[in-house]
């Protein structure tokens, strides 16, 4: 019994022990201290774009233009290439050659031309600037030592010297620091005649230009505005075939220099006769002016000579009407003194003009006698002052660009348009994106 009691007590004790609450679990460990995020790499601030230089002044435009001609003469193709915008275009007016598109092609074509006349240089005789328009007269000379490219193919080297005046019209980019588009006017008949490749009256090789080489920048003066207004009257008189009105705008000792003619016309009477002859030969003759602008005492024009040959003109070799229509482009630069035209320069292609009339075979054709077209005879250039197409291939003319400026300058004045004249047509642009002016006849 005692044993049982003890056993019972033992069981009760065990039971009592088994019924004691379990010990509380230990508290969880404290959370680890927060880890500071690694510092992020600091991105460099975007580099500030270099400020664009301000628009070039008129003087800087003129200097840049001259510098680019100098680079061309020096065969400095890196500097010459920088004269053009990347998508610039360059035309050799009425030459039969396609426009050059893009800086690389323009430089390449100029390089090739200089290979054909390694001593070829260009000397600026006159530079005119109005806003982003530049017009110039240049004396281009050298020796033909390599084959010439032409619409009819290569022409053999003649080893002869050439020297002739050409007109250069340029439209600059918006800031005035590079060429957007340029047009080169020269007479193929003169060039080929000097090389002995064309039997036609032409000017002799010009070795040296005048001592005075003006550089004129438009200021927007009242005198310039008056000259521009006079231009509108001249255009109206020409298109009405008003010879007395035209002659009344000339100085008594006017000098009319058409580069496609073998000699200048000097004095009112000589110029008056040329007007009369021309209007008889082209009764519907009109000038279509694309743009006109002044610079100091000068007027610059650019446009087309359009008409039908329905009359004879022996001075041009037209003994009977051809019945053909012509449309030839030209650049004209006039100098006015006391409101009268003292000097007139017309830059066009007389050979192309003659081709349109059927007086000269087109490139590649053989005239009666079998001589290549490039050697075919052709009449002298027309007396009025009109443009024409060319037969010389790539022209050597360079182009303009602008030197950087060191301080802000005011933008040059915009080019005013002559009343009654057609607005300037947009300059051709390169395929995927994108130089100034002159000319009617008096």
Task: Give the tags.
single chain; 442 residues; alpha+beta; seven-stranded mixed β-sheet; six-stranded mixed β-sheet; 9 helices
Quick overview of this protein structure:
The protein is built from nine helices and 13 strands. By secondary structure, the chain is α+β, with helices and mostly antiparallel strands.
Write the layout of secondary structure elements.
Layout: H1 2-18, H2 58-73, H3 77-81, E1 84-92, E2 100-101, H4 103-116, E3 121-130, E4 133-143, E5 161-172, E6 179-185, H5 188-194, E7 215-217, H6 222-239, H7 243-247, E8 250-258, E9 265-266, H8 268-281, E10 286-295, E11 298-308, E12 325-337, E13 340-347, H9 350-356
Structural category = alpha+beta
What's the SSE pattern? HHHEEHEEEEHEHHEEHEEEEH
**Can you tell me the residue ranges where pLDDT is under 50 for at least 5 consecutive residues?**
1-19, 367-442
**Biggest sheet character:** 7 strands, mixed
Question: How would the global form be characterised?
Answer: elongated
Beta fraction of the residues? 15-25%
What would the average pLDDT be, to the nearest integer? 78
User: What's the tally of helices?
Assistant: 9
Fraction of helical residues: 10-25%
Number of strands: 13
* Distance separating the two termini: 157 Å
The neighbouring-strand order within the major sheet is: 2-1-6-5-4-3-7
Rounded Rg:
38 Å
């Amino acid at each position: 019994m005692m044993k049982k009691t003890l056993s019972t007590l033992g069981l009760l004790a065990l039971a009592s022990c088994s019924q004691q609450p379990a010990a509380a679990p230990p508290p969880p460990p404290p959370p680890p201290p927060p880890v500071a995020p690694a510092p992020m790499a600091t991105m460099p601030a975007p580099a500030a774009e270099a400020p664009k230089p301000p628009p070039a002044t008129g003087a800087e435009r003129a200097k840049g233009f001259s510098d680019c001609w100098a680079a061309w003469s020096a065969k400095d193709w890196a500097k010459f290439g920088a004269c053009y915008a990347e998508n610039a275009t360059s035309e050799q007016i009425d030459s039969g050659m396609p426009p050059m598109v893009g800086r690389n092609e323009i430089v390449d074509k100029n390089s090739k031309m200089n290979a054909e006349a390694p001593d070829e240089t260009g000397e600026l005789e006159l530079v005119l600037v109005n806003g982003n328009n530049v017009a110039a007269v240049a004396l281009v000379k050298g020796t033909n030592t390599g084959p010439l490219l032409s619409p009819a193919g290569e022409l053999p080297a003649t080893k002869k010297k050439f020297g002739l005046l050409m007109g250069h019209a340029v439209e600059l980019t918006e800031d005035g620091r590079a060429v957007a588009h340029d047009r080169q006017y020269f007479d193929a008949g003169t060039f080929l005649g000097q090389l002995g490749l064309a039997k036609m009256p032409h000017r002799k090789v010009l070795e040296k230009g005048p001592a005075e080489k003006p550089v004129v920048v438009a200021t927007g003066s009242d005198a310039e505005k008056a000259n521009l207004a006079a231009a509108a009257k001249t255009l109206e008189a020409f298109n009405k075939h008003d010879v007395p009105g035209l002659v009344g705008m000339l100085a008594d000792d006017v000098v009319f220099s058409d580069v496609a003619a073998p000699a200048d016309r000097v004095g009112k009477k000589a110029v008056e006769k040329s007007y009369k002859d021309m209007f008889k030969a082209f009764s519907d003759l009109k000038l279509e002016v694309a743009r006109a602008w002044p610079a100091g005492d000068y007027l610059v024009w650019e446009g087309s000579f359009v008409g039908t040959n329905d009359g004879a003109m022996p001075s041009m070799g037209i003994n009977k009407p051809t019945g053909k229509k012509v449309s030839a482009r030209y650049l004209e630069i006039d100098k006015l003194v006391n409101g009268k035209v003292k000097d007139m320069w017309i830059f066009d292609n007389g050979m192309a003009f003659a081709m349109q009339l059927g007086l000269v075979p087109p490139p590649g054709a053989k005239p009666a006698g079998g001589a290549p077209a490039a050697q075919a005879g052709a009449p002298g250039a027309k007396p009025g002052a009109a443009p024409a197409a060319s037969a010389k291939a790539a022209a050597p003319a360079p182009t303009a660009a602008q030197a950087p400026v060191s301080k802000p300058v005011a933008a040059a004045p915009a080019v005013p348009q002559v009343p009654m004249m057609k607005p300037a047509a947009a300059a051709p642009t390169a395929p995927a994106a994108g130089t100034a002016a002159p000319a009617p006849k008096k």
